[in-house]
Amino acid sequence: MSEQFNANSWARNATPGQGFRVYNRTHNFGGNLGGKLVPFGYLKDKLFFFVNYEYQWIPSVNATTTNILTPAAETGVYTYLINGTTNQFASVNVLTLAAAAGYPSKIDPVVASYMALNDKIKSAATQTFTTDPNRLSYVWKQANSNQYYYPTARLDYYITPKEQLTFSWNLEHEWFPGNPRFPFADSPYQNPFRIGGYFVWAAALQSTFSARTFNEFRYGVQHSGDSNASATAGYGSYNTYNNQVLRIGTAPNATANLPFGTVTPYEDQQNTTGRHFITTVYDTATHLVGQHTIRFGANFRNTIWKDIWEVFPYSIYTMGTPSGDPIPGNLFTAASLPGDVPGDLGNGSGAAALYNQLVGRVSQATFRTVVNPDTKQYGNFVAYNWTQSYMGGLWAQDSWRVTPTLTLNYGLRWEVQGNMFDPQGLSTTPSLRDIYGPSTSLFTPGSLSGNNDPIAQPVDRTYNPDYLNFAPNIGVAWNPTVTQGLLGKLMGGAKTAIRAGFSMSYFDEGTLNYSGAYQCGPGQGIGCNAGKNAQQTIVAGTSSVLPQFTTLSDVVANPLVQANYPAIGTYNTILHQNTQTFATSFAGMKPTLVAPYLETWNLSVQRELSKGTVLEVRYAGNATHRQWRTFDLNETNIFENGFLNEFQAAQNNLAIANGLTVAQLTAQPTIPLKTTNFSNQGLPGQVNLPIMSSAFGARGTVPAIAASSGFSSSTFAGYLENGAAGSFASSLNSNTYFCRMMGNSFSPCLGPNSGAAAGQSYNAAGAGYPINFFRLNPYTTSMNYVDDVGWWNYNGLQVQLRKSLAHGLVTTVNYSFSHAMSNTGADNATNGQNFITLRNQRLDRRLSPFDQRHTISSYTTYELPIGKGKLVNLSNKWLDLALGGWTNSHIFQFATGTPVLIGGSYATFNNFFNSGVQLGPGVTLQDVSNALRNTPYQKIDQVGNTDSRLNRGNSTDLQRLAVPLDWVASDGRINQKYITWDTTPGTLGQQLYIPNINHWAWNVALMKNYRMTERVKMQLYAEAQNIMNHPTWGLPTVTPNNTSFGVVGAPSGGRTMTFRALLSF
Q1: pTM above the 0.70 mark?
Q2: What is the mean pLDDT of residues 289-301?
Q3: Residue 651 sits in which domain range?
């Protein structure tokens, strides 16, 4: 119960309802036994065993916060902060607006029951702070209990005095029963997790052939087996309503809440089982000859990844507005929501989300099944994701003691890396030609290859093995003796050691680069490309089985079954991409991928300052080359196709319609518009917009799109105000607009994913634009591509002072000054990050996300000079037992912050990157850093303060303003005399980085050993993490266009205590 000694955090003490302590109580139990396995006979001194068992039980209590709609919001009242202010609000009833326009306005019974269930939380939880005017926050205790089991066994067999055979086995088993979704006694537990077999099995044979020659052979298998609990093992499978399956969310899993945040009773609980095996074989031979120690050997590794999980045979219903639906654009306009931010208008995240939730509107339905690996047919509901790879190498190493004071180490390794592949042969892979689809190269609309039917199909190997990897290494250690002159004084005779080294090493990238992740949804990776699964999404209004306005109650009464999804046909090894367009995505790999490698180098000088005290100064550096990186090839093009020019013309049209200049239209923050119509209305200066006209107009039997989704769209008008040409073009790449541009010249527009309403078809010639008008491969939404263009580097000056044990004191102090760069800002399993633009990949050269210029750490242990025979001599047995023999240790760490990007808000260039920023006249990056990192904090919930920046209606006592008041405009954004964000279409702006807040920590421990008898002793241990109870504040909001610019949330951190007793006998 050490949590009673913990300090509650600053945030929890300051938050109503969170004064209770959260905790993790760790209980450890265990024992071991070892010795001779056979106590008599021939094997008495040959067989030895050791077994150990440990059990860890961790009951815990955590704080869980649930947001519940306000009573007003539950009746349709949407409240919003008026744009340009910090404390003025307005409200509108979305159901009243709908009723007045003749649209459905009744609260759906299913939604009403879920909101009523959420309201019950109020009686079992405590209300706390929130900045949301439409929701209330309630906090409640959530109890958990984790259990861990760690058995270990080892067997040693001394075959002969020169041969020893060893077997070992280690297992980790874990059980986490999950969390309750609500604070009710009968609330079911969800998301259980079991590690059912993390084991390492190993065998080793050590042989001594002569006094100078010996060999070690090792064989091992590492297995990771984990799963969540089966859906049939006391846990529900999926959400239901009145005993009818009702899966709500976005495929492949139904884990979403309702659109405005109301928590559903349950989420999908598919059983997922991972069975991963890594088999390794090593052999190392050592031979001593003269002054040489020669080692050589070989290794081999086989990696097998086996994931299996359930796919439920029921539809998933996504809530929201169907693509192209006119209701949000007609209801939620600048006129009906005066002063609301443009992003909330139309089908935004504000009023439309509340409306869609209350009426229970369903935007689409999805059904999924997977192929049976035995029959090679769809209809299976157990999915497989298997990946395998091989690697190995040969190596030789020599340690040559050239002289008693000079040692040279050198060697060479030959590394062979196999490729990752699917042993079941189910993973479909596009070739490089099919990755490019109809295009010959990037950004060449109209230059077509003739490949209008790109495919993906199973192949033996996506890329070739890499055999030509040779990794040398060399190192030298020299202990010179210099006694004369200044150099002799500096080097202290023989008290200096100089070391230098260089090495190369090849490494393999993770399996997820191939297999994909996240339940293997379509397009996540090669191993997850469509083809292993069959999935169809029906958008409401495009099929008679799902009318334009469908509610949750409708699908409860008439659920969609597999027969309602005609696109789910028979399995075919060749997958035509045009059958998946607008529905799923594909992924590919560079066919000539090679193994990445790391170069490291160092030079150090070590000097003994006094007996037991050493100072070492070293330069260390490393660089990775050919590192794999996953990025999307489908960058949206706005240049070569003329779209940028038309976007600028549309800006001019909109400005003229509102009696403004383009500069006034795009001035930030934007002003309310009199009209959002940017078409050519015949006003002087306005022009036709042929690209947009084709995207909004009629095609075949499909009528022109509603004005609220076309030329009068508040969303598109917002793009024009903010220069977001990339966002506008990306929107036009969706089926609703792209098929109106292409007509029957693009085959997917005649298929089931075209978005055409039931009985309608794009069966007419298009407007004459090439199908690669916007993107490289229009047959797929994205084309994640694995290439070997990544790199990282690090260079650092490192200083270390070490003092060995003397007078009870041992200490080590480290300091480093370093700089790290990379072209990959991501730290994830696939190194997945899009380039700023594929037009110039050098723009991605940036500070590494791990760049920390200065770090200091110290580790000190001190035996207190108190006790029998010590400085403070305690001759009394009992005093010595209580006060003597204590050891005190300290760990202190300090580090400067990692880089943080100060970026813009709008996609002015493409679909990958929000534009950058510009510093104001005379403003330096250091000024920005000082303002965001070195400013005294001010409260922003100061009721009665006439300065609206310090009296914000949507703030809490947990927030502070962390920048000078002059840096903040009246609407909460940055004062634009310091920084402006880019709104010029076709430009990128600057990427500016500042360091995050510095971090420091001080941990202290006390330890005492009691010798109770000759063979029995007890150790007492106490540790205080963050002994000063120092709160750690984060960096405030750095996005200049955010209305919370410069505002920082509550700090983290609090002192925690650990107590432990260990009895050894």
Answers
A1: yes
A2: 97
A3: 643-774
